[in-house]
């Protein structure tokens, strides 16, 4: 009798193991337990991505603002300031400049754009400190319409756009320059465009 009970128990365990495995896999998938495994990016992904063309950016060139058209397929780091460029904004500009310099010979594959809701005159003072920075203007309407619900802290956030003009990742003040640099180096390495 004991032998039969042991055999039944062994059979139950053998048949139950696959069921336990399936239940554990189902639970881990839907609980998000393994969601960060295999993640290589440091920034936060924007999903679905946002087209730069939708933002109707105006870039300042020769004292005139013209609609931004990316003729070069480069990666873009975009800093947005919804007011004056405060201390955090200055820090983000500094970080992006250092990231750009740290790319070395790959620096030509990246451009930096500073966007502000402020007047063109107030933005020009930044150009003196960051001569390779493109300066632009964005309206609060475009920010509210396209960015606010997808990127929680829009102000002083660094956006990363791919060479096709899709904003696909962002960085907040909590991300270091090293984290941004690591992401960009990885993207430049695997990218066949830009």
Describe it.
The protein has an eight-stranded mixed beta sheet with strand order 1-8-7-4-5-6-2-3, covered by helices on one side. The protein contains five helices and eight strands; from the N terminus they run αββββαβαβαββα. 40% of the residues lie in helices and 23% in strands. The chain has 194 residues and is α+β, with helices and mostly antiparallel strands.
By secondary-structure content and strand pairing, the structural class works out as: alpha+beta
Q: In percent terms, what proportion of residues is strand? A: 15-25%
Secondary structure: number of strands: 8
C-alpha end-to-end distance? 75 Å
Shape: elongated
Q: Radius of gyration, rounded?
A: 24 Å
Query: What is the spatial order of strands in the main beta sheet?
Result: 1-8-7-4-5-6-2-3
Give the mean pLDDT: 86
Largest sheet: 8 strands, mixed
**Number of helices, counting only DSSP H or I runs of 4 residues or more:** 5
Q: Could you state the order of secondary-structure elements as H and E?
A: HEEEEHEHEHEEH
Percent of residues in helices comes to 40-55%
Residue runs with pLDDT of under 50 for 5 or more positions: none
């Amino acid at each position: 009798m004991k032998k039969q009970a042991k055999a039944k128990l062994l059979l139950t365990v053998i048949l139950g193991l696959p069921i336990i495995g399936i239940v554990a896999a189902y639970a881990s998938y839907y609980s998000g337990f393994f969601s960060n495994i295999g993640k290589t990016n440091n920034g936060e992904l924007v999903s679905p991505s946002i087209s730069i063309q939708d933002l109707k950016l105006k870039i300042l060139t020769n004292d005139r603002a013209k609609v931004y058209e990316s003729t070069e397929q480069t990666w873009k780091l975009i800093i947005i300031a919804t007011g004056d460029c405060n201390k955090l904004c200055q820090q983000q500009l500094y970080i992006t400049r250092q990231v750009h310099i740290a790319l070395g010979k790959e620096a030509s594959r990246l451009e930096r754009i500073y966007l502000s809701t402020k007047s063109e005159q107030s933005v020009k003072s930044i150009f003196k400190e960051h001569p390779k920075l493109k300066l632009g203007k964005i309206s609060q309407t475009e920010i509210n319409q396209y960015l606010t619900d997808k990127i929680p802290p829009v102000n002083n956030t660094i956006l990363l756009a791919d060479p096709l003009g899709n904003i696909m990742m962002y960085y907040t003040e909590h991300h270091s320059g090293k984290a941004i640099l690591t992401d960009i180096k990885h993207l430049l390495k695997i990218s066949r465009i830009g």
